[in-house]
Every structure is written in structure tokens, then in C-alpha cells.
Design brief:
mainly alpha; DNA binding; transcription; 2 domains; two-stranded antiparallel sheet; Multidrug-efflux Transporter Regulator, Chain: A, Domain 2; elongated; 5 helices; 10% strand; DNA-bd_dom_put_sf
């Protein structure tokens, strides 16, 4: 299938699909004319990429973890034990960022509340 069809089947823009290719996440065949030719398995690969992106992984991280991921009853699951440790570290980094943002929000709430008292 060509890039337009993959875009329609996945709901991902052609521009994003080209970016995934640039990052090494997708490897379509190329016809002599230069057209990209995708396989049906690329539909599932794009779905896995999207899930990992929404989980907070960068495309560089996804290149490394994608070979260790499988679809298990429409759920993404790691098959490499060392990957779980890396995912836990990523989750912990996200948790720390959330905590920091919550503290920042609390500080702003305090400042806002103080302004209202001063008025």
C-alpha cells in the first residue's frame, strides 16, 4: 500500500509517517519511481509507535524498544525482561515531572490566593 492508504488506515498524517521513516521506526520498500510501499504489518507497527509516543517515549527510545514489544490481545506488552526496567525508569521520570509540576501549581495557587487577599 502507498503512504496515503497507510495514513487512512492508521489515522496518522503522511507527514508523521515520513518522520517515522526518517527516525528508523518504519522501513517501507521503495519502488524505482521513489514511491514508498508499505505492508499490512506496518499498520500494526504504526499503532505500536503511537501507543509508545502517548506513553511518553521519544522516537529515539521507541527505536530501541519497538523490537521488544508485541501485541497481546490488543495490548502492547514487552517481551524483553530488561525493557521492563527501562520502562519503570521512564515512568519514574514522568512521575517526578508530575510532582514538580504539582508543586509549581501549588506555588501559583498560593500567589494567586495572596493577591486576592491583598485586593
Amino acid at each position: 500500500m502507498r503512504i496515503g492508504e497507510l495514513s487512512r488506515r492508521t489515522g496518522v498524517s503522511e507527514r508523521a509517517l515520513r518522520y517515522y521513516e526518517e527516525q528508523g521506526l518504519l522501513r517501507p520498500e521503495r519502488r524505482p519511481s521513489g514511491y514508498r510501499v508499505y505492508r499490512d504489518v506496518d499498520v500494526a507497527a504504526v499503532r505500536r509507535i503511537r501507543v509508545l509516543l502517548t506513553a511518553g517515549l521519544s522516537t529515539a527510545q521507541i527505536v530501541e524498544v519497538l523490537p521488544c514489544m508485541v501485541d497481546d490481545d490488543d495490548l502492547l506488552a514487552p517481551i524483553c525482561p530488561e525493557l521492563v526496567d527501562e520502562l519503570v525508569k521512564q515512568r519514574d521520570r514522568i512521575g517526578a515531572a508530575i510532582d514538580e509540576l504539582a508543586a509549581t501549581r501549588a506555588n501559583l495557587d498560593t500567589i494567586i490566593a495572596n493577591e486576592r487577599r491583598a485586593s
